[in-house]
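Worked problem 6 (solution included).
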Amino acid sequence: MKNTKEKYRLYCEVKRDVPLFLTYNWYSNLYKDTDWNVAVVEKGNEIVGFLPYLLSKKKTFNVISPPLLTPYQGVWLNYPKEQKYANRLGFEKEVITELIKQLPKTDLFQQKFLPTFTNWLPFYWKRFEQTTKYTYIIDDLSDLSIVFSNFKENIRREIRKAEKNLTISVITDLELLYNMKKTIYATNNSKYPIPFDILKKAVDFSLANNCGELLVAKDNEGNTHSVLFYVWDDNSAYYLQGVTSDEFKTTGSMSLLLWEAINRSATKTKNFNFEGSMIEPIERYFRAFGGKQTPYFEIKKTSSKFLKLLNY
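Solution. The predicted structure is:
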């Protein structure tokens, strides 16, 4: 008899529309088997919904929280065909409620759900809370001339300038990205929060499965200006990590790399998700690429009275 993870694995192998960050392979390659699990709801012999999660211990608290390098988590639903809207909402309530029941008891649950997930009412009824966050998505990559024309003028100008002075290459040298990140964070008296082994697992998995690339922008003297890591699935590409050397902040290298990633994504998938930040300067930069401001939910439940007190 197949266990839950095995059923989940087989489902993800067959269903090509499961987003990359919710797939069995993503979790099993990036995280220890003992650190993650999945809630699964079946009808008959068919999976109708699942919710993968990372369970960890933080100090004395058991928490389900967003895994590193996994910008979206949450529920995936396998809807019946030709379902009426009212029936669809009922289906969502039934399946999500059952998924919630299967979650382990924790002091804190916190996940960032895919932008395509729009009905959090079943969580609300179970006393979860929700914060709306935003990303920017270029939702049609079929005509890149239109995509480019939607960029703000300063971004177009940066790209044209950078094209004259910089060369873009696809690389596999992860340490280049990692060491630049560490340097930038150290300059700001902080520590890069992503361990090398997690970053390596994400890059290795993406390169091995042809669902991600590392891009670098260098000048004629071989100086590295910027590095970018992005991934994709059948529906979207996602900007995951990027870094620009302090020495070359004004060369337009990151704008050029993002434009290159968008161009390359157009041959692989349907849209490009900037993983928009809630930090104002970063939001302003991503917004300038003309993507559609798109809300997504961060859903949270604090069960520990002590944690509630700390949050208060």
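Discussion: Residues 140-290 form a domain with the Aminopeptidase fold (CATH 3.40.630.30).
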